[in-house]
Amino acid sequence: MGAMSLFRDDGIVLRTQKLGEADRIITLLTRNNGRVRAVARGVRRTKSKFGARLEPFSHVDVQFFSRGGGELIGRGLPLCTQSETIAPYGGSIVTDYARYTAGTAMLETAERFTDHEGEPAVQQYLLLVGALRTLAAGDHEPHLILDAFLLRSLAVNGYAPSFDNCAKCGMPGPNRFFSVGAGGVICGECRVPGSVVPSAESLTLLGALLTGDWETADACESRHAREGSGLVAAYLHWHLERGLRSLRYVEK
C-alpha cells in the first residue's frame, strides 16, 4: 500500500456528477491545488448536510483524503471527508435567472482555464471568488460582472486584449478597428481582413470592465453593453478554441 495523505484547501464547487447510488464526483477550483476532482460519499441521500454544502457556487473549506500507491477509490480520486461552508453564494445566484446563467458561464470558464488538474491557479481562483461574491451581492448587472470576469480571466492567463493602444504596433489609442486574432484594437495601418469597427463606447466599456472602473461600466447604455459582450465572447472563443456552452443562455 502506498502512503495515505490528508490535505485541506478552500475551493469553489464548479460542478457535480452522480456516481453510483449515493455518491458524487465534485469538481472544485481550489486556492492551492488548482482544479481538484474528488468523491463525496453518501451526499445524494436526502438528509445529507454534507451534500448540501457541496453544491455549485459554494465557497467551501474541504478536507481531502488521498490514498497513494495506485489504490483506486472511486476511479482513483481523493475523497472529500469534511467540508465547511465559507460562503453559500449559490443561495442568491440560483434564484435569479440572469445571475444564474452568468454564474454558470463563470464556473465553466474557470474549469476551461484550469485544464491541468492539480496545477496551482491562484489568480483564477481569486478572480472567481471575487466575481461570485459580487454577483451574489447584486452590486452590478450580471452580464457586466460576467464580462469583467471573462476579460480578467483572459488577462491572467496571458491573453489580455487591448482596448486602447494598437495590439500590433502599440500606436497610442483610441484605435477604431478590432480583431480577435490580432489581440484587440488595431490602427488603420495594422488593419487585418475580418476586423470590425465597434462603437467607441463599447471599447471604453470593455476597458473599464478589464480595469475595474465600475462607475464607467455601470453608466453604459445596454446597446453598447450588448456589442461589448459580443466582442468578449468572440475573443474568448478564439483563445479557448471552442465556445462556452453556457454563454448562449446569458441574458443581454
Question: What's the structural blueprint in terms of helices and strands?
Answer:
Blueprint: E1 4-19, E2 23-30, E3 34-40, H1 49-53, E4 58-67, E5 79-88, H2 90-93, H3 97-113, H4 122-137, H5 142-156, E6 177-179, E7 184-186, H6 200-211, H7 214-218, H8 222-240
Parallel strand pairs: 3-5
Antiparallel strand pairs: 1-2, 1-4, 2-3, 4-5, 6-7
Helix pairs in contact: 3-4, 3-5, 4-5, 5-6, 5-8, 6-8
Overall description:
- The protein has 252 residues and is α+β, with helices and mostly antiparallel strands.
- It has 2 domains: 4-88, OB fold (Dihydrolipoamide Acetyltransferase, E2P) (Beta Barrel), CATH 2.40.50.140; 93-249, de novo design (two linked rop proteins), CATH 1.20.1440.
- Helices cover 37% and strands 23% of the residues.
- The protein is built from 8 helices and 7 strands; from the N terminus they run E-E-E-H-E-E-H-H-H-H-E-E-H-H-H.
- It has helices spanning 49-53, 90-93, 97-113, 122-137, 142-156, 200-211, 214-218, 222-240, and strands at residues 4-19, 23-30, 34-40, 58-67, 79-88, 177-179, 184-186.
- The strands form 2 sheets. It has a 5-stranded mixed barrel with strand order 1-2-3-5-4.
- A hairpin with a 3-residue loop joins strand 2 and strand 3 (34-40).
- Helix 3 (97-113) packs antiparallel against helix 4 and helix 6 crosses helix 8 (222-240).
- The longest helix is centred in the last third of the chain and has 19 residues, at 222-240.
- The radius of gyration is 20 Å and the shape is elongated.
- Mean pLDDT is 90; it is low at 69-74.
